[in-house]
Amino acid sequence: MSHFGGHFGGRPHGAATTTVRCKYCRASLTAIPGERAIQCAHCNCVTRIRRADRIPLPVMGPMTAPFQRARGKKRAVLVGITYAGMRRGCGELRGPINDVKCMRNLLCQRFGFPSECVIMLTDDQRDPFRLPTKDNIRMAMHWLVQGCSYGDSLVFHFSGLGAQVADDDGDEVDGYDEALCPMDAFQKGPILDDEINEVMVRPLVHGARLHAVVDACYSATVLDLPFLCRVARNGYWQWEDHRPPSGAWKGTSGGQAVLFSGYSDGKSNFAVMPDAYASVGAMTHSFIRAVECEPRGVTYGRLLSSMRTIMKNGGGGGFGDLQGPIGAPIHQQHQVANFSGVQNYYSLLSPPVMLQEPNLSSSEMFDIHRKPFVM
Fold first, then answer.
1. Is the pTM of this model over 0.90?
2. Where is the Peptidase C14 caspase domain (predicted)?
3. How many structural domains compose the chain?
C-alpha cells in the first residue's frame, strides 16, 4: 500500500484560511493553506495567490493512499469531470465520462493494460476516493509514477476544463501557467502545470515512459515539458525550445514524457467549456480513432497527421465507427465536440476559444516520422 504526504488528504479541521480578491471581478475568495491559485465561482477566472498571502501547509504525518490497485508495468490514471452541479449558471458536460470509458477500453483492449492497473476518477462515482477532487487527482498522479522503473508504460488522461494564470516565477516562455480544473476548483483552486511537472514528469527514470492525453482548453503545455513540436500544414516540423527562461529543470530523471493536447490560440484567463451537448471530446476522439485506424508501430508524425485529419473532418463519423468494444459506451449517443468553432459559454466575459489542432510536446526531441508510437 502506498503512502503520501498528509497534505493530499484535505484541509485539517480548524486550519487557517486567507481571503484574496479575484483579479478580474474583485469578488472575495477564500484560499486554503498550501494553494497557489484559486478559481472564482462568479466569473470563473483563476487568480494567483501572492507569496505573501499564502499560508504554509501544516506539518502532518503520512496518510494511507486509497489506491490499492496492483502496480503492474502498465498502469494508467484516467480523469473525467462533468462539473455537474457547479455554480456556473450552465449545464454540465456530457463528454468526459464517456471519454474516460473509451480510453480505458482502448488501453485494455488494444495495448493490454490490466484492468486492475487502470484508475478512473469521474464525478459520477459513489466511492469518495474515486471522485476527481484536487486531493484525489494529486494522489492518483503520485500513485502512477511512484517507484517507476525501466520498462514501465504509464498513461495519464484528463477530460474536462483547463485554465490559465499569470506566471509568477519566470518559468513560462509565454508568461502564463496552465492548469487543470478538478471538480472542487472553486474551493481549492486548479492544479498548476508546475505541480503536474514536479509530480509526474521529473520522477520518470531511464526506460520509463509516460504518455498524457489532455482534452481541455489551455492544455498545450500543461505538463511543462521542455520541447514543443510545431507541425506546419505542409508537413514540415520542428522542435521549439520551451525550457524556462529562469533555468528551472522541467525534464525527467532519464525517462520520457510525451503529451498529446489541443493547441488553442485563445488569450483569456477564463476556464472555458466545450460544447456541453457533445458526448465525446475532440482530442480524446481523434486520438482513439487515429490509434484504431493506423497500424501498430505507427510513428508519432503519422499519428498526429491522422488526428489532425479527423479533427478537420469534424470527427470522421464518431466512436460508433470504431472497431470492437472501444466505443461501446457511446455507440448510441455519439456526438463530437466541434472545437473548430465551439461557442464559449462565457462569451459575454471573454472571446471564444478555438481549439485548432492536436499538439505534441516532449521531454526530449526526436524524429517524429521515425520514432514509433508505443504505449
1. no
2. 73-313
3. 1
Alpha helix stretches (DSSP H) within the chain: 95-110, 134-145, 185-188, 193-196, 282-293, 300-312
pLDDT of residue 314: 67
Nearest-5° Cα angle at 347, 346 to 349: 70
pLDDT value, residue 244: 82
Dihedral sign for Cα atoms in the order 271, 277, 281, 286: negative
Cβ neighbours around 58 below 10 Å, total: 14
Residue at 367 is within a domain = no
pLDDT at 24: 74
Report if residue 243 sits inside a domain: yes
The H-or-E segment that residue 355 falls in is: strand 355-362
pLDDT tens digits, 268-304: 333 334 444 457 788 899 999 999 999 988 999 999 9
φ and ψ at 65, to 5 degrees? -70, 145
Give the CATH number, domain containing residue 169: 3.40.50.12660
Question: Which residues are registered as beta bridge partners of 37?
Answer: 48
**Are 176 and 57 spatial neighbours (Cβ–Cβ below 8 Å)?**
no
Q: Is the pLDDT of residue 78 over 80?
A: yes
Whole-number Å distance between alpha carbons of 47 and 40: 8
Would you say residue 55 lies in a domain? no
Q: What share of the chain is helix, strand, coil (3-state, %, to 5)?
A: 25, 25, 55
Whether residue 94 contacts residue 276, with contact meaning beta carbons closer than 8 Å, is answered with yes
- Count the Cβ atoms, other than its own, within 10 Å of residue 128: 9
Cell numbers representing residue 59 in the block = 506539518
Residue 248 belongs to domain spanning:
70-362
Which residues is 241 bridged to in the sheet?
A: 227
Measuring CA to CA, which residue among 228, 230, 227, 224 is closest to residue 248? 224
More confident residue, 227 or 235: 227
Give the residue among 375, 255, 242 at the shortest CA–CA distance from 303.
Answer: 375
pLDDT of res. 232? 78
337 assigned to some structural domain:
yes
Residue with cell 449545464: 91
What is the C-alpha separation between 351 and 268, in angstroms, rounded? 7
CB 274 within 8 A of CB 282: yes
Q: What is the pLDDT of residue 364?
A: 96
Element (H, E) at 46: strand 46-48
